[in-house]
């Protein structure tokens, strides 16, 4: 494949990966994806340095370069600091999320992954300042998609704001970590939620619907919520789990009967893919990420908020429908296997994709 840039060399690569988020300090899915990608690349023999204002994450096998920040406008100040870094010794510069204003070639291959769209988030986020911040970051995303050697989208549906970007590589999850044979499933009907109580993940609305509708129809049911911002006192049957380790989270997926994340917006939605890897039926609102991961509802249930309670009740009561969706989930999860995702990024780094 010919291109306008020089591909990274053969053999092990020196990769500079940039992310404002990492799991050590942030719940944002971008940070988890960067952590997983960097670990898998390092295990393959590449030298990976992750530049981030977050502290090192437990379980990392890559190198971490801490960029400490304090005060306001941290995202933009991080961009300015990264622009002054000497990255000339690397074969690949791979920026995630905001591009950090890396608008001048410094390495043989500059890759930019757009994890959704800040313009799309601006539509759904609350608060004038937050909307303005997202619009400013969105303009940076558009410029970055033009100046990078290769820009990658995480789903075709995110192409709305950058229609000229053609390369799509979904987010990846470790199939082996989440895979289940069904023997760990809870003895009572269990719905799992992974996200935030407030804002676009709509954990609070799911809890209300569960208490008012699902619990009434399925009295023995339980909603288990992996979230850190829920109030202390909640209705019966709702359990807040807080922050979990990777192994604890995988165990929660394996014990659930149904996974539900009714987000207003997801560019991809890593928890959907994690649930599928565990063979758990997925119920989601029809945001663009859920539409892609479920293939427009072929591999999961897409539901409006008005119908969400009824959808959950029907699934919890139907062994046959849950078994059908569990089989579909395992099939679809293979498309998001971390091993295959990193294979494709290696091809991008070398100019072969």
TrEMBL record:
InterPro entries: Glyco_trans_4-like_N (IPR028098), Glycosyltransferase_grp1 (IPR050194). The keyword Glycosyltransferase applies. GO terms for molecular function: hexosyltransferase activity. Gene3D superfamilies: Glycogen Phosphorylase B. It comes from the Bacteria. It holds the Pfam family Glyco_transf_4. GO terms for biological process: carbohydrate derivative biosynthetic process. Residues 29-177 form the Glycosyltransferase subfamily 4-like N-terminal domain. This is D-inositol 3-phosphate glycosyltransferase. It comes from Paramicrobacterium humi.
């Amino acid at each position: 494949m010919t291109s306008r840039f020089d591909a990274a060399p053969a053999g092990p690569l020196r990769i500079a990966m940039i992310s404002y988020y990492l799991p050590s300090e942030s719940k944002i899915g971008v940070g988890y994806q960067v952590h997983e990608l960097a670990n898998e690349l390092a295990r393959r023999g590449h030298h990976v340095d992750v530049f981030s204002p977050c502290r090192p994450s437990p379980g990392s096998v890559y190198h971490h370069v801490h960029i400490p920040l304090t005060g306001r406008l941290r995202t933009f100040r991080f961009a300015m600091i990264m622009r002054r870094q000497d990255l000339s010794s690397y074969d690949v510069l791979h920026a995630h999320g905001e591009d950090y204003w890396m608008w001048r070639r410094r390495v043989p291959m500059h890759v930019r992954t757009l994890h959704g769209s800040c313009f799309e988030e601006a539509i759904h986020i609350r608060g004038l300042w937050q909307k303005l911040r997202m619009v400013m970051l969105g303009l940076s995303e558009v410029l970055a998609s033009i100046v990078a050697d290769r820009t990658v989208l995480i789903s075709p549906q995110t192409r709305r704001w950058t229609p000229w970007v053609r390369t799509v590589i979904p987010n990846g999850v470790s199939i082996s970590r989440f895979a289940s044979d069904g023997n760990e499933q809870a003895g009572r009907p269990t719905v799992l939620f992974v996200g935030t109580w407030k804002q676009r993940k709509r954990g609070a609305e799911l809890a209300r619907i569960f208490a008012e509708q699902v619990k009434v129809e399925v009295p023995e049911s339980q909603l288990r919520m992996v979230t850190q911002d829920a109030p202390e006192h909640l209705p019966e049957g709702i359990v807040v789990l807080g922050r979990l380790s990777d192994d604890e989270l995988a165990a929660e997926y394996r014990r659930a009967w149904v996974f539900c994340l009714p987000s207003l917006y997801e560019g991809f939605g890593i928890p959907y893919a994690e649930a599928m890897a565990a063979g758990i039926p997925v119920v989601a609102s029809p945001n663009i990420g859920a539409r892609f991961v479920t293939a427009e509802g072929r591999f999961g249930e897409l539901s409006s908020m008005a119908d969400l309670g009824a959808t959950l009740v029907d699934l919890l009561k139907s062994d046959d429908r849950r078994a059908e969706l569990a089989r579909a989930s395992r099939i679809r999860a293979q498309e998001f296997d971390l091993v295959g995702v990193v294979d494709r990024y290696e091809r991008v780094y070398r100019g072969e994709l």
